[in-house]
Specification:
The chain is an alpha+beta fold. The protein folds into three domains: about 45 residues, no CATH class; about 220 residues, DNA ligase/mRNA capping enzyme (D-amino Acid Aminotransferase, Chain A, domain 1, 2-Layer Sandwich), CATH 3.30.470.30; about 80 residues, Beta Barrel (OB fold (Dihydrolipoamide Acetyltransferase, E2P)), CATH 2.40.50.140. About 30% of the residues lie in helices and about 30% in strands. It has twelve helices and 18 strands. Strands 2-13-10-3-9 form a five-stranded mixed β-sheet, sandwiched between helices. Strands 16-15-14-17-18 form a five-stranded antiparallel β-sheet. A hairpin with a 5-residue loop joins strand 14 and strand 15.
Amino acid sequence: MDKIQELSEKIIKARNEYYNLTPKVSDQIYDAWVDELKELDPDNQAITSIGAPVAEGSVWSKIKHEIPMGSLNKVNSESEFIDWSNKFKSDIYLITWKLDGSSMELQYRNGNLIKAISRGDGKIGEDLTKNAKQVPSIPHKLHVPLNINIRGEIIMKKSVFEEVYKNDYANPRNTAAGKIRDKKNHGIDCKNLEFLSYDLHNQKPEFMHEKFEFLHDLGFKTPDYIIGDINKILEYFKEINRDKLEYEIDGLVISINDSKILESFGSKNMKPEGQIAWKFDSQMKESKALDVIWQVGLSGRLCPVLIVEPVNIGGVEISRISLHNLSLFNELKLWKGCRVLISRRNEVIPYCEYNLDLEQNIG
């Protein structure tokens, strides 16, 4: 088996386990596999695919999406975002939250909710209708007899998580993803979930912001949104305070506002070219260096691993951090007991950003 095939199989297996709530490898190991495969084969299906197939052991039946549920390409910096926007030269964009939840499609026929389907691999998901009907913000019947498909996110308010679930679960996102699939007590915990909608099909408003207005009129909750040019986006990104929001978000979604122009750019690998997710900078916390050990990485090179006092970032406890290479290890000039600043880059990969004691100890 060659390296590309080996990495592809590992990534697909790990993704299936993650999306079906049975992860067996750490985020950092998974991401290391993805990074290596990107270098070897950037168009590999293990990287470009959406979500994961429904687990064979799922207690919920499989069901096909009438309209495939895709995903978004992502950028992680202002320069990357500007490079993306320069391809379109659009005057007006719609800007909304990138919700950190579990994607779902609702199908209404003659105004009645008939199906609620998880994303799965974007083509086939789980039929979660029974549990979804217990989510208070999902209407069972619309006030107009429409045949319409609604897309949105199953989420949990941070306040609900803190009050009810924080001692048993890592974060609101994982809790929501688990509870919407939970058959225990007939899914009663779904009463603590919410559904925020942001897209619809079978209706074609001229502008993207009109979709949000239409969803409001139908009785759905939506994430906040604004309309503006590039300068407005840059200003909003810098000013938004996600700590004050009721919901966990991990970035913004920016879309060309004119629906016809948006559609004219098409999509690739079920990801629209005229929309992008701009991720927030990683959260950071201080910890203390305890040790550095050396281990052989996937590429066969010796890699330093920093051991720190455990610190919780975004609901994940971090105690081991790959330093990736000798250059970073030498740059940080670590010693036992020094204070270090730890992040989760892209909300996933643990990273040692700084040795906080370095400057005051030079010379």
